[in-house]
Amino acid sequence: MAVGDAVAVAARNVDPMSAISPQVPIRPSDRPSRGDRIFRGFTVGAAMLALVTVVVAILFLANEARPALSSTGLKNFFTSTIWNGFIGQFGILGVMVGTMIIATIAMIVAVPAALSMALFINEYAPRKVGRLLTSVVDLLAALPSLIFGMWGRDAFQQKLVPVARWLSDHLYAIPFFRLSAEDVVLVRSSFVVGVIVGIMVIPIITSISRDVMAQAPRDVCEAALGLGGTRWGMIRTVILPFGRSGIIGGILLAFGRALGETIAVALIIQLTFDINWHVLEAGGSSVAGLIAVRFGEATPLERSGLIAAGFALLVLTFTVNLIARRIVKRGQIK
Amino acid sequence: MSTHLDHDQQHRTNESVALAPQHLGPAAQGASSLTATDVSCWFGSRQVLERCSLSMEPGKVTALIGPSGCGKSTFLRTLNRMHEVVPGAKIAGTVELDGQDIYGEDLGVTEVRMAIGMVFQKPNPFPSMSIRDNVLAGLKLSGKSAGDKDTVVEESLRRAGLWNEVKDRLHDGGMSLSGGQQQRLCIARSLAVHPRVLLMDEPCSALDPISTRVVEETVIELAHQITIVIVTHNMQQAQRVSSQCAFFLVEEQKQPGRIVEAGDTATLFTNPKDQRTLDYVTGRFG
């Protein structure tokens, strides 16, 4: 009896419930050194700076855009192509479509050229040539867009006239390349601006995709060659799938840049507020170009309208980025 | 785990029984011979191999052994023109597949690599492809018509001893397999283009002992069908799988590697002619 009691007491001492009572998970704490805390503070501050900038910019744009939006009405703003600062009519449909047209033409020019360049540097060029080309491409990226704009306006766009002529003669089946009349002007068009912006963004796509594709695992590349694959076969089966998300990322960065390109557009394009589907003909528009051309002499109300257009551009770029992220994610292998 | 393996083993035995009637005898008909004569190799100006001559007999496993850095992998890579993939790599000498010079004008480099397949040190399936697409990748790459794709996939996976493990998940990613299975997938991928010779560059060095055993059994099984050349660090492995053997050695630092001795595996390991071979195979260095 006494012995039994002793056992019972001992058992109670270790608390028979402890084995089944739920445990509370904790994070082991650590006291970082002072230097560590200061550095941490800096990084937190820097990260916050980005967030604060975005929020402040959005609030500013939204606030400044209000007068114009209430004057023209939200529906009108998105669906009209009439822009008149005096009567307070701000329709951005034509300008938004024009922005997309220019950026799309730029991508059609830039993507194949940039990817070919990247593949040539990585896979075909002798090492010295590759290194030289890489620095030339980087130099191209450093050229201010003003230079491209001036060069495009004063020299390059005349060279593009025969190209535009050829496209309208031979690719008549594509509605965009049709001309509205025989004697239309073939400069100061979306096509010219698109090509020039395309050339401008080539270095962005080239350098990002080149970096990504250079990381393709060499042993898997060798597997493709070892199976009797050609170099192109290896690129197709290993390098492009491997670099896919990086390449898409680079393209989107360039697309964003093309959507927002200002000075080159402003210098070259003949501004119109209508949607001009005849991309080879003079007349086109982009949000950024519109703002650059009009902002200086705008009345306070029109200035508000321009800011509203800028805000819409921001939303467009943001949406493009979101969609792109989706695409990149969906492509990843399980 | 062990029951799973036993199960697996049983299936493998069944597979080999199924293959046996057509592929009896050590040197199956249709296997090819590969002959290297005075092969020397350079990376830039540095010579890494000096006048290596070796005859790899049809339908047999030839093992290339030797310490690290002796040039055996380089030699292997000259046998299907993979050496030249490295920028600045050069080669002298001849390699003949059934008497035809693989560096000659008549054969393109892609034809050579299709006829002489290669399995690499690290399993390297194409990460973006399913198991099935990995097997078919060689056919797609070379533009060869596959015939009935399902048949090619099943036959190649069976020959590599992987069919029973993956037949229900052919559309899963190639990277979802274990390391040993990935390596057998790479073997199946090489076999799908029907090579006459299979080169294997330390195929088990990244694998655990159990996977190693399975791959070795696959090698022994395949030897009845095609000519195999295998580089290995592991002397027990050389003894287990090969019937012919060549011992490579770099005499002094910065000197190119040479073949010290080549011949019957059993003789090389028990009664070598050269003292250095004896020292190596008895574990006195290396």
Characterise the protein shown here.
The complex is a heterodimer of chains A (334) and B (286). Chain A has a single domain (72-330), classed as MetI-like (MetI-like fold, Orthogonal Bundle). Chain A has a two-stranded antiparallel sheet with strand order 1-2. In chain A, 72% of the residues lie in helices and 1% in strands. Chain A is globular, with a radius of gyration of 29 Å. Chain A has 334 residues and is mainly α. Chain A contains twelve helices and two strands. Chain B has one domain (2-281): Rossmann fold, CATH 3.40.50.300. Chain B has eleven helices and ten strands. In chain B, the strands form two sheets. In chain B, strands 6-7-8-3-9-10 form a six-stranded mixed β-sheet, with helices on both faces. In chain B, helix 5 crosses helix 7 and helix 7 (179-191) runs parallel beside helix 8. The relative contact order of chain B is 0.18. Mean pLDDT of chain B is 86; it is low at 1-28. Classes of the chains: A mainly alpha (334), B alpha/beta (286).
Secondary structure blueprint with pairings:
The complex is a heterodimer of chains A (334) and B (286).
Chain A: H1 2-13, H2 34-72, H3 74-79, E1 83-84, E2 89-90, H4 93-124, H5 127-142, H6 145-170, H7 190-214, H8 218-226, H9 231-260, H10 263-268, H11 287-294, H12 300-330
Antiparallel strand pairs in A: 1-2
Chain B: H1 2-19, E1 34-43, E2 46-56, E3 61-65, H2 72-78, E4 89-97, E5 100-101, H3 109-115, E6 116-119, H4 131-142, H5 149-159, H6 163-166, H7 179-191, E7 197-201, H8 209-222, E8 227-231, H9 235-241, E9 244-249, E10 258-264, H10 265-270, H11 275-281
Parallel strand pairs in B: 3-8, 3-9, 6-7, 7-8
Antiparallel strand pairs in B: 1-2, 1-4, 4-5, 9-10
Helix pairs in contact in B: 4-7, 5-7, 7-8
